């Protein structure tokens, strides 16, 4: 597992200190616990040349896989690997000290040869993996008296190895997940702790790691046979991630325009066939150019990342959210009536308005303007809905920004104007009270929607 990339604001010498205090304390606590474990077990562990040879061989295999990844190329956003295939055998076959040490050289190699990221993230990632491996090693050695029993084909040691491999994942995932949640409260816990694709990959990693451990316990030379299949699995995993990366925007991780359009058109066709309601939101960050001009494009990129995370965290799993280009985002809301769509748009506007991005001078805050269009009301196809939402967004900008607007109604002709005037005189006050009652919860704040 490799930490995701992060862009630090311009001029920030210590990016870690720009995060929330709780996150800083948590990262420091995990790293301190990892270092303490290394010191304690170093004092308790006798050094044997057989252990050093096994440790070196497994590290070398991990290094070969990392180098192969570098040669294949790994774009930003692709972060899964099969390095567990090498540090799980270390946890099973060697004393816990080696499991604590294993991530350090491999993370350094990733940082130097594959992808550079903010240093504290790389250090934290290594510490979390080291702690997970150390605990796994302690539990396995307490359960299986002799690790070499793995080569006998006995069911009990193999079952213990599989259980401890699962324990490794159950420790490492929450350690990383807590940090991710502290960094961004808008992220869903389910996204951090449970994802179907990630769960499948975890199972593959644990099985491969256990198989490599069994082969290595039979003979260290069998690692030569294990290395090519692991590299092939890594290559296929990378190919799948590259396919996913082709659908996503590299800065925000949201769907890119082409992928969003394909999925949105499919969803609209389905909704029209079943007669279900749906809505489209076009969201634009207000005065984004001023953020770039005042704080630099790196801060602007971080604002995009935070806004994207906020939008994703406030939407349902089946809502389609993508980056439309520049500072614009687009959302398709299936199974959503007009009242619910306005509520969602207002909630997103308020949530982004409370968001802050740390910079050297303090905090950067932004607002968003949103245009809303309803399927079947403002159009039946994607292009018509986008045009309607764009007109509503333009109206929100013209009325002062930081608000939600609907498309302006079509201007009636003279005959329609006369009829409308008579109609309003007959129902004016009653209609106004009724509209205020019906739209109160959905419109949130009347001043934001005035004239929209």
TrEMBL record:
GGDEF domain ranges (all copies): 276-409
Biased composition (Basic and acidic residues): 418-432
InterPro entries reported in the protein's UniProt record: Diguanylate_Cyclase (IPR050469), GGDEF_dom (IPR000160), Nucleotide_cyclase (IPR029787), Rev_trsase/Diguanyl_cyclase (IPR043128)
Highest taxon, organism lineage: Bacteria
Disordered, as annotated region: 407-452
Keywords: Membrane, Transmembrane, Transmembrane helix
Transmembrane segments: 23-44, 86-110, 122-144, 156-182, 203-227
GO molecular function: diguanylate cyclase activity
PANTHER family assigned to the protein according to its UniProt record, in alphabetical order: DIGUANYLATE CYCLASE DGCM-RELATED, REGULATORY COMPONENTS OF SENSORY TRANSDUCTION SYSTEM
Protein name: Diguanylate cyclase (GGDEF) domain-containing protein
UniProt source species: Thermostaphylospora chromogena
């Amino acid at each position: 597992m490799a930490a995701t990339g992060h862009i630090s604001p311009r001029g920030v010498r210590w990016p870690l200190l720009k995060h929330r205090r709780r996150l800083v304390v948590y990262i420091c606590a995990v790293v301190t616990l990892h270092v303490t474990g290394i010191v304690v077990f170093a004092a308790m562990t006798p050094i044997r040349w057989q252990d050093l040879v096994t440790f070196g061989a497994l590290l070398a295999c991990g290094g070969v896989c990392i180098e192969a990844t570098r040669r294949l190329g790994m774009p930003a956003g692709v972060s899964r690997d099969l390095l567990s295939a090498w540090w799980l055998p270390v946890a099973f076959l060697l004393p816990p000290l080696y499991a604590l040490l294993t991530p350090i050289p491999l993370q350094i190699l990733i940082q130097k040869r594959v992808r550079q990221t903010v240093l504290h993230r790389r250090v934290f990632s290594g510490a979390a993996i080291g702690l997970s491996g150390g605990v796994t090693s302690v539990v396995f050695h307490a359960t299986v008296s002799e690790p070499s029993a793995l080569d006998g084909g006995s069911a009990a040691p193999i079952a213990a190895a599989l259980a401890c491999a699962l324990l490794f994942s159950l420790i490492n995932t929450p350690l990383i997940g807590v940090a991710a949640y502290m960094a961004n409260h808008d992220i869903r816990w389910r996204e951090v702790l449970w994802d179907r694709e990630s769960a499948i990959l975890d199972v593959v990693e644990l099985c491969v790691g256990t198989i490599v451990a069994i082969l290595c316990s039979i003979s260290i030379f069998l690692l030569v046979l294990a290395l090519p299949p692991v590299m092939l699995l890594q290559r296929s995993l990378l190919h799948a991630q590259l396919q996913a990366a082709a659908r996503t925007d590299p800065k925000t991780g949201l769907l890119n325009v082409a992928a969003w359009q394909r999925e949105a058109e499919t969803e609209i066709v389905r909704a029209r066939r079943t007669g279900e309601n749906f809505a489209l939101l076009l969201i634009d960050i207000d005065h984004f150019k001023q953020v770039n001009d005042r704080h630099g494009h790196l801060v602007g990129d971080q604002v995009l990342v935070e806004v994207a995370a906020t939008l994703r965290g406030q939407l349902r799993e089946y809502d389609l959210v993508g980056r439309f280009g520049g500072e614009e985002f687009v959302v398709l809301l299936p199974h959503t009536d007009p009242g619910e769509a306005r509520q969602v748009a207002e909630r997103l506007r308020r949530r982004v308005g409370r968001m802050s991005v740390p910079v050297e001078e303090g905090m950067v805050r932004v607002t968003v303007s949103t245009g809303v269009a309803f399927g079947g009301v403002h159009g039946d196809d994607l292009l018509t809905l986008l045009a309607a939402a764009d007109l509503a967004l333009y109206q929100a900008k013209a009325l002062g920004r930081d608000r939600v607007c609907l498309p302006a109604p079509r201007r009636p002709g003279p005959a329609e104007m006369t009829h409308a005037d008579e109609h309003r005189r007959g129902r004016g006050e009653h209609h106004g009270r009724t509209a205020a009652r019906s739209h109160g919860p959905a419109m949130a704040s009347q001043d934001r929607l005035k004239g929209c």
